[in-house]
Every structure is written in structure tokens, then in C-alpha cells.
């Protein structure tokens, strides 16, 4: 019977792009272990056991396969039902365990040892282990390097011919960086194996015209794929003039990639044959999986399990396919017959239905693609995998993504931020008003307001646009023009009305336009050339918009050549509204051979507003990329151990809230009854250096007077109920109470107003300031998120909130505050103030935000924190109200712990 956590099982990508399944060992693995040991070379056995060990005895097998998953843990890696590697630890001291691993000779060098060490280390930490020790023979350089390169703090000693390595298992920045770098290389390689096949089989190739199978085959052949193509048909001798085979197993040569176009209920059988054949990857264009309901979802999970167990990645199912324009491959494994020419843009689309239209739109605009992937149901390969690949792909300069959901949002934001530091990432997020995940897709619907998603994308450097048209508008600037160094825009044209439209649009987009240079309707190409040269040479001009109305003078081609020439000479971007065309007109393109990147081509837009919006996207992205990323300040007074003990104590007393929280716009799904006690909430905040004002709940005027005496004057009496600020119009507080009579009168007044609708509490009064609200919690779409806004009725009704991902840097905290529309109230003098010394201490508020972000990031048990209000005055940021909800912590957070592929049900 299983007695280990489910998250100890995982699918992983190896360094060569293949996959393996990791799981704890069980007694049922006895025969697999014997077969595994029998395949090991004498040298490998000697390195593991320090002696010849040609055969395992029954006693050995029982000891190795029977573990308690506490003091003795062993993990195995399997590929196609064969055991290929084992790692184990045995506890030898209260916080110390001895670790050892062995990898089958034929699979050494694939990264199995490194990924097994990551997973066994995570399991050991869960069981209270802090150190690993390993005894290694000096000549076993491969094993020594695995430990040394793990990124953990390591020590080495030498005694009696054996090297003893000691590893501190506490994760470090180095170990995390090593893990993520290995993940990036492995996942990038797995995508490269799909995009650069040397041979392709089309399974389900049909003799009937316009079927999916025949379409896929014709497109491969018509795209001039550089390797052999093998149709697979159970009866036909040939399909569209190409020799066919009854099954993939009867193809005499190696098959790297298989396009699967058979009925959904037969796909798994085909995948098993591909596994036996040694196929590297699958594109499943067949439908009938997760998009059709529970039965299809189960079929989809079985497809992925079967493929990954055999070392294969899967694109799809229910997808359009993949393409690679590299001339050495010329791969069109899609259902679209026409692909754009080679270019600098990598494109990922979840939607297969839209994929063909998207490709047509790209071609119409004169843009080129490096690679294209339509992932359909995204059961395995996702946009995250493609970002890993595109990060180092020299052919891709811009990344476009059409997203309907995020399978692993934490990983998406991490990878997008890293990729965006090198290459622009432009994303369309469909379903902006929906809070659900599209049918057939993995969990990850973006359950936040639309503006919140935009702000989180911006934090990660992703250029979020509203539709596909805007995505291509932005892509034209990113792909073919340099990035602007600032917001100042020069405007040149031969129509004053168009020039004013440009200026107005620039102001609305947050740019800083200069006064337009109107050349008049009779302007010549030489006039344009002179004006553009002057604008580009001006230090206070960072980009140029040219508007040209050809109907006024027949010089269109001459002006186009001027634009092209000046663009090639300049390191500043130029965009235009030219000839009322959209895209890159032929006159503005580079004259050269097909498949060139059109570097220096001048993007043209049908309206000035479109041109300016695209330029604004490029400007904001450039500013994001050039700004300092900020730092995570040291907070020495954090007590994680005490916080853990406080959470454990609170969970014993409270009923954990199980629902996801929707903590924006005043909506709450957590019941007040499930909140932890106020004392526990204050204690937990104090562990992270956040002092919350105590309050005392009272049920009579006499109790209120006593409470005020205990807490001190001046005092406050307030009604305490969720969302009371909005419903009561801000009249639920009586402040500046300096005598018992004041307290008694205030209590009776509020009691008369609210009756039994809200409890009344007494609190010591803080000095006047600006009331704000800080909320944080674990959002199911993005992970730990922090929200900020002002605590007043108007802000609540207008939902004037800003959002950032945790943990916050100092720059993130400052951005979070400045992002709300009411932020100027925090940067001026409050009412009644007479000097700058009374200005709100925004620095203290920033530190509070950082501390809250660290708290929710550190403890997944914290579902929701509501600090309302936080009063910001000259002396600091004072937490006057604090509620907190705990939940049952997930077994493992997405994108936390050792690297793994998105899970399916094992």
C-alpha cells in the first residue's frame, strides 16, 4: 500500500530532451531491480558498492525495495517500463542521511543523476533531513561532479581512499539557479527535438482529399521538408504518391516525429507503437480529448502518461501543429497549407481553430516567422516550454503568444520575466471577462480582474495587448525597428489633421510628443528626408512617427525609399501611416532575397492611433527592460520558526477555508467564521516584523470604557464587519475619544446605528493619516499576489486597486503604490498639515508591503491576508485592522521544489 506523498511522483525532462518518470520504489519493483542490476557494467557496480557485486541476493532486493519513506527513502526513474536509475538515502543521524545513486550505463550523461538528487533532496527536507553525506571513490569523477554542481553548500574530506562529500540541503540562490538552468536546457532541447526532426511519419494519412490526415501529409510535402516523410495507412500501398506503411513499426528507418491523425480512441495504441519504434515526439491533431468532457480528459491523461513514460513529448491533442521555417528543415507539420516566410518571430497559440487565420494574417502583413506552435489542449507542451526554447534560439527575436489559460502561472511569470529581459514577449489573453478555464485546457484560468492581469503581466515584462490585431501591430515594431530610448516622439507629415491625431494619441498613451513638423501638401521626398534627418539627430527625440497622404502629391515611392534609407541609418524607431496600408508595404521592405528578416523595414499602420499605440508598447517595454530590477531587502527580524509554530497552532483551532479567495472589488468567499483569531493573526504578522494595533471587542458601554482605559487614550470605537466601509458610507468609526464619556457616547451612537449588524470594538487611536488597504494571498492563477489601494468609499466602488506578484522587490513595492489612481494623496500634505514633516511615510508603507509579500510567499497555508485599514502618517504605516484565513496547504506549490513537468493523474 502506498505510504508516500503523491507529489513524490513526477515526470521530468532530461538533458537530451527525452523524458522519464520518477517515483518512490516499492516492493513490487523487485524484478525490475534485478533486471536493472544485471544490465549494469562491472565498473558501474564497483563505483556503487566499492566491490564486485554481479548479482543481487533476495535479501538485497528485499532490503533495497522495502523502505519506510521516512528514515529510508528510495526513488527510481523509469523509461518505457524499464528501471534506469535509483537514488536512495538512509538516515544515519537526527538530521543527516547517507545518499547514493546509480544510473544504467546506457542512460548515463542524460541528467538522471542530477534530477534524482533534486527530488531526493526535497523528500529528505520534508522528512527533517538537513544534510546528505556521500562516500565516493576518487576515480568516480561523474558522481563527484553531480554533487559539486548541484549548487548546494558542500564540503569534501578524504580518508582511507574514499572521498566523503557533505551537502547542506538548505536551498540556496546557487542551487535554485542551477536547477532552473538545467530545466531550461532540458526543456529547450525537448522542443528542439520536435522542431528539428530528420524524418516524419504521418499516422492516419488518408487517401481521401481534404481529410486531416491527407492535409497534414500534403502540407509536409508541399512545405519542402528536408527529410523523408512516411505515410502510415493500414491498407494503402501509397498515399498522394508516397509509399505508405501499415504501421509505424514497419517503417525501416528511424522516425523522429510522428503526426497522429487517427480516431481518439485509437491514439493511445498508436502512441505505444511509436514508443516501441523509438519516436522522439508526437503531434496529435486528432480531437475527442479534454475538450469533450470527463471521458476525453481521461483519454488525454492516458495519452500523456504513455508518451512521457517512453521519453516522448506531445504537442496537442486537438491542435493545428508546428512549423519551423529554418531552410535546413522547412517543417510544415500543420493543417495550414500556407506559412509565412522565414522571419524573426516565434509564435505560440493555444487555439487550433484560430491558428490558420493567424498564420494568414502574419503573411498578409509581410512578417516572417521563425517557428510556430499550436498546442491545442496543451496536455503536455505549453507556452512555457516554448519560452525556454526561444530564450536561446538565435532565429527568434520576438515572441508572440495567444493565451487562453496558464497551466503553471508561477512558472509562466518566472520564465516570461527572464525571457523579456532579452526579447520582447507580446501576449493576447483571450476571455478577459471570464473567470473559468477553456474546455480541454489544464487548470489555470486567470481568476483576477482584467486590469490586474495586465499589471501582473507588466511586472513580468510581458506586453499584454487586447486582440490579435494589436499583437501584430506591436510585433512589427519589435521585429523590424530598434527600441526607443525614451518617450519623446517626433511627428512629421504632410497633413496637419493627421499630425494632430498623432499628437493626441501620443499624449493618451503616456508619450511625450513634440509639436508636429507639417511639411505641407506640396512636400517632396527631399523635404521628408531633411525633416526626418533632423528629427533623428535631435537628442530629445527618441522615436519618429511619419504620416503621409499620397493623394496630395504623386511621390509615394520616393517617400517610401526615404523612410527605408533613414530607418537603416538610425538607431531610433520609425513608424508610419503610409498609403493607408497596414503591415510593411513593398516599398518599405528590404530589397533582397526571400526569407530575410526585413531588418529596418518601416511598419505602416492604417491609422495614426494604431501606429502610436504600437510605438507606446515598444517604449514602455524598453523602459521596463532598462530599469533596475530592484532588490529584495534584508529583513533580519523575520522569525520563520515562530511563524510556522503560530500557523500550526492556529490551524488546530480554526476551520481552514477551502475555497479560493476572490479578494478584489470587495468580494469575499471566505466566511468570517473561518478566519483565525485576531490574536493569532497579530502574532503571525509580528513574526514578520508587522505590528498590528490590538483591539478589544465590547458588548456594553461599560466594557467600552474599561477597554479604552486598558488600551489608552485617545481611543476609537468602531463597528467591525466586512465591507462596512462601502455599505455605511464611511460613518462606522468614532475617533479622537479622550474621556470615558466620549467613549460611552460613541458606543451608544454606533449601537443605535448598527444594532446587531456588526460587533463594536475599541482601539487606541493612531495619529491622522491616509487610510489604505493591503491584501495578499495565494491566487489560483498567479500564485502569491499582493494588492494595494486606498481605504475609502470611492476607491472601493471604483475598484482602484493595484496588484503585484510576491515576493516584492523594493521597486515592485514602489510601483504597487504609484499604480493606483489615488496615489497622489500619499505624496502631498494631508488636510491640516503645515510642514513636510507631517507628510505620509511612504517608505514605511513600502516596507510593510514587502514584509506581507514575504509572509504569504513563505507559507502556502496562508490563503488570504486583509490589512484594513493601514493608516499611513508621518510616523509610519500602522495596521489598525487585520484578518487572516488559513487553508490546507497544497502538497507542492507549482514551480516550487524540484523541476517537473505539469502533472497528470498517475
Automatic annotation (TrEMBL):
<keyword id="KW-0067">ATP-binding</keyword>
<dbReference type="Pfam" id="PF13380">
    <property type="entry name" value="CoA_binding_2"/>
</dbReference>
<dbReference type="InterPro" id="IPR016181">
    <property type="entry name" value="Acyl_CoA_acyltransferase"/>
</dbReference>
<dbReference type="Pfam" id="PF13549">
    <property type="entry name" value="ATP-grasp_5"/>
</dbReference>
<feature type="domain" description="ATP-grasp">
    <location>
        <begin position="682"/>
        <end position="719"/>
    </location>
</feature>
<protein>
    <submittedName>
        <fullName>Acyl-CoA synthetase (NDP forming)/RimJ/RimL family protein N-acetyltransferase</fullName>
    </submittedName>
</protein>
<keyword id="KW-0547">Nucleotide-binding</keyword>
<dbReference type="Pfam" id="PF13607">
    <property type="entry name" value="Succ_CoA_lig"/>
</dbReference>
<dbReference type="InterPro" id="IPR000182">
    <property type="entry name" value="GNAT_dom"/>
</dbReference>
<dbReference type="InterPro" id="IPR016102">
    <property type="entry name" value="Succinyl-CoA_synth-like"/>
</dbReference>
<feature type="domain" description="N-acetyltransferase">
    <location>
        <begin position="20"/>
        <end position="170"/>
    </location>
</feature>
<dbReference type="InterPro" id="IPR003781">
    <property type="entry name" value="CoA-bd"/>
</dbReference>
<dbReference type="InterPro" id="IPR036291">
    <property type="entry name" value="NAD(P)-bd_dom_sf"/>
</dbReference>
<dbReference type="Pfam" id="PF00583">
    <property type="entry name" value="Acetyltransf_1"/>
</dbReference>
<dbReference type="InterPro" id="IPR032875">
    <property type="entry name" value="Succ_CoA_lig_flav_dom"/>
</dbReference>
<dbReference type="InterPro" id="IPR013815">
    <property type="entry name" value="ATP_grasp_subdomain_1"/>
</dbReference>
<dbReference type="InterPro" id="IPR011761">
    <property type="entry name" value="ATP-grasp"/>
</dbReference>
Amino acid at each position: 500500500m502506498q505510504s508516500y506523498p503523491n507529489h513524490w511522483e513526477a515526470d521530468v525532462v532530461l538533458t537530451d530532451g527525452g523524458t522519464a518518470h520518477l517515483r518512490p520504489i516499492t516492493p513490487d519493483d523487485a524484478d525490475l531491480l534485478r533486471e536493472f542490476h544485471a544490465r549494469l557494467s562491472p565498473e558501474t557496480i564497483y563505483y556503487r558498492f566499492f566491490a564486485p557485486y554481479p548479482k543481487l541476493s533476495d535479501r538485497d532486493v528485499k532490503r533495497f525495495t522495502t523502505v519506510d519513506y521516512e528514515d529510508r527513502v528510495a526513488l527510481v526513474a523509469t523509461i518505457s517500463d524499464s528501471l534506469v536509475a535509483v537514488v536512495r538515502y538512509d538516515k544515519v543521524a537526527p538530521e543527516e542521511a547517507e545518499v547514493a545513486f546509480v544510473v544504467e550505463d546506457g542512460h548515463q550523461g542524460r541528467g538522471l543523476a542530477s534530477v534524482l538528487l533534486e527530488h531526493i533532496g526535497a523528500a529528505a527536507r520534508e522528512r527533517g533531513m538537513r544534510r546528505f553525506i556521500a562516500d565516493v571513490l576518487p576515480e568516480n569523477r561523474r558522481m563527484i561532479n553531480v554533487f559539486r554542481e548541484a549548487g548546494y553548500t558542500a564540503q569534501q574530506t578524504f580518508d582511507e581512499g574514499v572521498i566523503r562529500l557533505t551537502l547542506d540541503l538548505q536551498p540556496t540562490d546557487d542551487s535554485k539557479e542551477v536547477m532552473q538552468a538545467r530545466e531550461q536546457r532540458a526543456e529547450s532541447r525537448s522542443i528542439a527535438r520536435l522542431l528539428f526532426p530528420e524524418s516524419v511519419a504521418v499516422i492516419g494519412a488518408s487517401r481521401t482529399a481534404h481529410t486531416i490526415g491527407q492535409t497534414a501529409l500534403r502540407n509536409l510535402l508541399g512545405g519542402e521538408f528536408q527529410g523523408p516523410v512516411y505515410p502510415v495507412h493500414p491498407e494503402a500501398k501509397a498515399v498522394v504518391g508516397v509509399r505508405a506503411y501499415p504501421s509505424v513499426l514497419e517503417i525501416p528507418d528511424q522516425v523522429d516525429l510522428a503526426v497522429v491523425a487517427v480516431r481518439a480512441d485509437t491514439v493511445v495504441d498508436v502512441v505505444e507503437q511509436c514508443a516501441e519504434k523509438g519516436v522522439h515526439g508526437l503531434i496529435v491533431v486528432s480531437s475527442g480529448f479534454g475538450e469533450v468532457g470527463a471521458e476525453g480528459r481521461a483519454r488525454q491523461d492516458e495519452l500523456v502518461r504513455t508518451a512521457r513514460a517512453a521519453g516522448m513529448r506531445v504537442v496537442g491533442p486537438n491542435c493545428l501543429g508546428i512549423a519551423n521555417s529554418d531552410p535546413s528543415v522547412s517543417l510544415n507539420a500543420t493543417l495550414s497549407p500556407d506559412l509565412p516566410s522565414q522571419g524573426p518571430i516565434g509564435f505560440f497559440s493555444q487555439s487550433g481553430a484560430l491558428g490558420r487565420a493567424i498564420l494568414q494574417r502574419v503573411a498578409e502583413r509581410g512578417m516572417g516567422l521563425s517557428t510556430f506552435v499550436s498546442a491545442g489542449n496543451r496536455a503536455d507542451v505549453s507556452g512555457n516550454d516554448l519560452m525556454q526554447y526561444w530564450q536561446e534560439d538565435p532565429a527568434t527575436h520576438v515572441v508572440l503568444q495567444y493565451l487562453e489559460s496558464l497551466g503553471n502561472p508561477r512558472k509562466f511569470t518566472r520564465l516570461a520575466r527572464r525571457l523579456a529581459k532579452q526579447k520582447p514577449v507580446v501576449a493576447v489573453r483571450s476571455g478577459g471577462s471570464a473567470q473559468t478555464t477553456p474546455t480541454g485546457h489544464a487548470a489555470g484560468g486567470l481568476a483576477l480582474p482584467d486590469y490586474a492581469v495586465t499589471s501582473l503581466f507588466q511586472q513580468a515584462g510581458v506586453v499584454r495587448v487586447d486582440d490579435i490585431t494589436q499583437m501584430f501591430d506591436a510585433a512589427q515594431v519589435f521585429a523590424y525597428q530598434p527600441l526607443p530610448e525614451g518617450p519623446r516622439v517626433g511627428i512629421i507629415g504632410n497633413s496637419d489633421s493627421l499630425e494632430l491625431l498623432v499628437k493626441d494619441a501620443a499624449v493618451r498613451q503616456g508619450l511625450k510628443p513634440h509639436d508636429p513638423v507639417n511639411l505641407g501638401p506640396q512636400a517632396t521626398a527631399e523635404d521628408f528626408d531633411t525633416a526626418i534627418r533632423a528629427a533623428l539627430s535631435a537628442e530629445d527625440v527618441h522615436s519618429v512617427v511619419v504620416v503621409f497622404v499620397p493623394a496630395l502629391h504623386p511621390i509615394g515611392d520616393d517617400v517610401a525609399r526615404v523612410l527605408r534609407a533613414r530607418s537603416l541609418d538610425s538607431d531610433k524607431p520609425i513608424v508610419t501611416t503610409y498609403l493607408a496600408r497596414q503591415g510593411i508595404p513593398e516599398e518599405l521592405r528590404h530589397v533582397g532575397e526571400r526569407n530575410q528578416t526585413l531588418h529596418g523595414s518601416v511598419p505602416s499602420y492604417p491609422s495614426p492611433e494604431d501606429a502610436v499605440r504600437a510605438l507606446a508598447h515598444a517604449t514602455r517595454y524598453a523602459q521596463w527592460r532598462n530599469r533596475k530590477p530592484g532588490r529584495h531587502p534584508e529583513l533580519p527580524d523575520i522569525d520563520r520558526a515562530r511563524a510556522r509554530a503560530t500557523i500550526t497552532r492556529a490551524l488546530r483551532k480554526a476551520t481552514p477555508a477551502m475555497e479560493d479567495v476572490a479578494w478584489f472589488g470587495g468580494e469575499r468567499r471566505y466566511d468570517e467564521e473561518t478566519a483565525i483569531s485576531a490574536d493569532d493573526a497579530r502574532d503571525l504578522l509580528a513574526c514578520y516584523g508587522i505590528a498590528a494595533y490590538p483591539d478589544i471587542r465590547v458588548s456594553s458601554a461599560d466594557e467600552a470604557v474599561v477597554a479604552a482605559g486598558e488600551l489608552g487614550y485617545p481611543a476609537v470605537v468602531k463597528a467591525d464587519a466586512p465591507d462596512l466601509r462601502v455599505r455605511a458610507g464611511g460613518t462606522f468609526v468614532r475617533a479622537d475619544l479622550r474621556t470615558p464619556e466620549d467613549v460611552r457616547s460613541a458606543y451608544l451612537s454606533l449601537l443605535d446605528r448598527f444594532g446587531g449588524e456588526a460587533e463594536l470594538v475599541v482601539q487606541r487611536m493612531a495619529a491622522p493619516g491616509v487610510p489604505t488597504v493591503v491584501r495578499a494571498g495565494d491566487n489560483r492563477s498567479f500564485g502569491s499576489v499582493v494588492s494595494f489601494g486606498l481605504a475609502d468609499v470611492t476607491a472601493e466602488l471604483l475598484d482602484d486597486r493595484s496588484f503585484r506578484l510576491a515576493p516584492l522587490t523594493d521597486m515592485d513595492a514602489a510601483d504597487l503604490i504609484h499604480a493606483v489612481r489615488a496615489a497622489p494623496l500619499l505624496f502631498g500634505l494631508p488636510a491640516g498639515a503645515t510642514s513636510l514633516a507631517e507628510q505620509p511615510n511612504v517608505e514605511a508603507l513600502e516596507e510593510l508591503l514587502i514584509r506581507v509579500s514575504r509572509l504569504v510567499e513563505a507559507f502556502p497555508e496562508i490563503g488570504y491576508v486583509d490589512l484594513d485599514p493601514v493608516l499611513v502618517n508621518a510616523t509610519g504605516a500602522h495596521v489598525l485592522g487585520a484578518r487572516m484565513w488559513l487553508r490546507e496547504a497544497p502538497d507542492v506549490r507549482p514551480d516550487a521544489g524540484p523541476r517537473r513537468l505539469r502533472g497528470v493523474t498517475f
